[in-house]
Amino acid sequence: MRSLQARYARDRLILLVVVIGTILAALPLALVLGYALVNGFSSLNWDFFTKGPKPPGELGGGMAPAIVGTLVITGTGLLIAMPFGIGAGILLAEYPDNRLNPTLRPLSDTLNGMPAILKGLLAYVLVVKTQGSFSGLSGALAMAFIMVPIIAKTTESVLKLVPWHIREAGLALGLPRWRVILSLVLPAARGGVVTGLLLATARAAGEAAPLIFTAFGNTLLTLDLRQPMDALPLRLYAYAISPYEDWHRQAWAAAVVLLGLIVMTSLLARWFTRGRL
Amino acid sequence: MQQAPVQPSRIKRPPSALYRLLGDRIFFAVILLLALSIVALTLGLGYYLYLGGSQTIQKEGFWGFLTGTTWDPALKLEFGIWPYVVGTLITSMAALFLSVPVALAAAIFAAEYAPRWLAGFINYLVDLMAAVPSVVYGIWGIFVLAPFLRQVLYLPVFLWASENAPWLAPYLGNPSGYGMFTAVVVLSSMIIPFTAALSRDVIQLVPAAQREGAYALGATRWEVMQMVILPYARGGIFAGAMLALGRALGETMAVAMVIGNGNILPYTLFGPASTMPAVIALELKEAVEDLHYSAIIGVGFYLFLIAFIVNAVASYLLHKLKVGEQRA
Amino acid sequence: MSEFEASANPQTGHTEILTLDPSLKTRLEARRVTVMYGQKAGVKDVDMPIYTHKVTALIGPSGCGKTTFLRALNRMHDLTPSARVTGEVLLDGVNVYAPGVDPVEVRRKIGMVFQKPNPFPTLSIYGNVVAGLRLVGIRKKSLLDEAVERALTQAALWDEVKDRLHAPSMSLSGGQQQRLCIARALAVEPEVLLMDEPTSALDPISTQSIEDLLTELKNHVTIVIVTHNMQQAGRVSDFTGFFLNGDLVEFGPTNLLFTTPKDKRTEAYITGRFG
Ligand SMILES: Nc1ncnc2c1ncn2[C@@H]1O[C@H](COP(=O)(O)OP(=O)(O)OP(=O)(O)O)[C@@H](O)[C@H]1O
Ligand SMILES: [Mg+2]
Predict the structure, then answer these.
(1) What kind of fold does domain C2-270 have according to CATH?
(2) Which residues, at least 6 apart from A189, have a Cβ–Cβ distance to it below 8 Å?
(3) Which residue among A31, A118, A233 sits closest to B45, beta carbon to beta carbon?
(4) Structural domain of B219
(5) Which pTM does this prediction carry?
C-alpha cells in the first residue's frame, strides 16, 4: 500500500517540477525582451527613423531605408498573398465536400511549416536568377510564399465559425452560392480574416533569411521594387555581425522597433477579433 | 388625401439562370485556381530546388552529395553536404530534447494548475514567444548568451578538463562561446512555444467526464494527469514536438549568428559547427562558380526533403487528432 | 442524545425518524447545503441525513438538482470553476468541507458512479477496474485479479467480459460501459457509494442485477441513488428524498413517503400528475 502522504508528496514534487519548468520556458523570452528593451531604447533616436546608414566605421546614421523597405516588401507581399490565401481558405471552409480538400489541408500545413529560407530560395530561382538582379519584388514574393498558407488556415477557421444558418438563410432567399459567400459569409467573418492577414504579415515581417539573397539590402532609400531594397531584420543582422560598437547599438534599436511592430500587430489582431476565435 | 406614389421596384427582373449557374461555376473555378496555388507552391518548391541543384547533385551523385564530407567551393570545387546535414540534425534534435520537457511543463501548468488569469497570461506569452523574430533571438545570442555561457560554463569546464581529464578536450572543442552548444540553447528557447501551444490545446480537449471519473476514485491531481490526461493527450504532444522539430530544422538566422559556422567534422560540443539553412544564408549571395551556386540550391533541396517529411507527419497527426485547427 | 437533537430538523423529520427506529446511525449528513452556479442556485439549503447501510433514493423532475446535490456530497464541485458550495456535509460527524480535510480522502471513502458512463478510453477493461487500486500502490497480480473478478461479478458484467479483459474499454456497449464504471467504483471498496441514475442506460435484465446488487451491497456499504424510476425507488430504497426546483421538498422512509406523503407536491409527483 502506498500512503496518502507519500502520494501527496509526489503530487507536490511534480507541482514543483512543473512550476520550475514553466519558469524555465518563460525565462528566454523575458531575457530577450529585457535586453532588447534595455539596450534598444537607449539607442533609439530621431536619426534612427529619418537617416540612412553611414559608411562602415562612421558614427551616427539610421535605418530609414530599412524601415520603409520592410513596410514596402511586406505590404507588397501581403497584396500578392491575399487572394491566394483567402481563396484557399474559402475552398476549404465553404466547399467541405470538395475532393481536393483532404489533400489541400495537410499540404497547406506542411507548406506553412517549411523553412522560410527555402521560400526565399524559390523566389531567388524564379525572379533573381531570371532577371539577373536582386530586387524588392523578389523579396516581396518570398514574403508572399510565407504568408499564403497562414492566411489560408486562419481564413478557413474563421469562416467555419460563421453559423451555417446564415448561409441557409441566404440560399433560401434565392441568392446563388457565390453571392452568399461574398456578401453574407465573408463580411460576417471580416474581423477574423483581417486578423489572419495581420498575423501573416507579422510573421513575415520578422524574417531576414529569405531576404538575404532576394531583397539583398540597400543603404539608399528606394521605393522602386525593381531595385535591391533594405529591410529591418536584414539591416539588424548585418549590423549585429559587424565589428562596430555603434552599429551594434543600432542593431539593438532595430530589435526594439521590430518587437514593437510585432506586439502592435498582435494587439491589433486581438482588437479585430475581440473575444471571437 | 393624396396617395403616395408607389416606389418602382429596384429589382428589374429575377436573377437570370446565367447569373446563378454560371456565376457559381465561375466563382468556384476562380477559388479552385487560387487554392491550387498552394499545391503549385509546394510542388514548385521541390521541383525548382531540385532543378537548381541538379548540376552538382548529378556530378556528385544523389548519395555522394549527401554523404560527402568535403565542402570546398574555393579550390577543388568538391561538394558534400554531410557536415551540414549532421549539424542540422544534431542541433535540432538536441534542441528538441531540451525544449520538450520545459514546454510540456508550461502546458501542464497553464492547463491544469494555474488560476485562470495566470493561464491566460502564459498563453499570451507563448504566442508572443512564437512571434519574436529569429534575428532578435540571434542578437541576444551573440551579445548576451554566448559571452555568458563562455564565462560560466565553457571556460570552467574546459579548464577543469585540461587539468583533470585531458582526454575530454577533443570532445569539448574551442570554448569561444560561438559554437554548437550555444546554438542548441538558442534554438531550444525558440521552439518552446510550438510544443507548448499544441500540448496545452490537447490537454484542454480531454473531456471533463474523464477527469471526474479519475477524481471520484480518489486520485490526486498528478495521478489524474498520469491516469487519464497524458495518455489521452499523447498524440497531440507528439505532433507538437514534430512541429517544433520542423521549425528547428529550418531555423536560420539565430543559428547562423551563434554557431560559429565551421564545417569540419567531427564537431565538438563547444566548437563551431554549421547547419544547412546557415550555409544557404551565408554563401548563396557570394557564390560565383556555377557548381557552387548549384551546390547551395542542392542543400536547399535536401533540406526540403527532410522538412517535408517531418512536417507531413506532424500535419497528418494533427489532422487525425483534430487539434490545432485554430492555430496558424 | 444531544447529538441527535443538534441535527434535528422539523422540515426533514430527522428526529421523528430516529424516534421511529433508534438503531439507525447517520453516516453522512447534509446541513444547509447550497450550491450556486454563478448567480443561479442548483440546490438551496438542503438538510438531509444519509443512514448507515441503507439505500437512500433521490427523486424529482429533470433539472431539479439531484445530480448537483449528489456531487456536493463528495466534493466533486471542487472541479467545476463556476460552482460554489456552502453549508456542511458531515461524514461521521466531520465536515468534509472543513479546512484541512483532504478531498482525495473524501472521494476515496465516498465513491461515485456518473450519470453518463465515463470509462477511461486509453485503458483496457481490466485497467479500468483496477485503476483505483493501482493508485494506492497495489501491484500484486493475484490481488488485482481477485478484485477484478469480484467487482465485475457484482456489477453483473463478469460473464460478458471474462474472456476479453484486456480489450479496450471503448469496445463495450453503452450499458456495458456503465456497468464497467460501477465495477470501477466498487473495486476500491468505498464506504459510501453515490450513484447517479446508474440504470438509465441498461436493459431490464441488467437493471435487475444492479438492483439485486444494491440489496446485497447495503449490508456493508451506504448507498445514495438518483433515479427517475419511481418503481425502482420503491423497490430498492429505504429512504427517499424528493427534490423540486432545487429544494428538498420532503424526506422520509420510502414506504411512508410513497403511501402517505406530507406535501401536496410530493403527492402530485409520485402519482404522476406532473414532472
Ligand atoms: N455546471 C453547471 N453550470 C450551471 N448550471 C448548472 C450546471 N450544472 C447544472 N446546472 C443547473 O442546475 C440545475 C440542477 O441541475 P442537475 O444536473 O442537478 O439536475 P438533475 O436533477 O440531476 O436533472 P436530471 O434528472 O436531468 O439529471 C439545472 O437547472 C441545471 O441547469
Ligand atoms: Mg442529473
Answers:
(1) Rossmann fold (3.40.50)
(2) A155, A158, A159, A161, A162
(3) A118
(4) 36-327
(5) 0.82
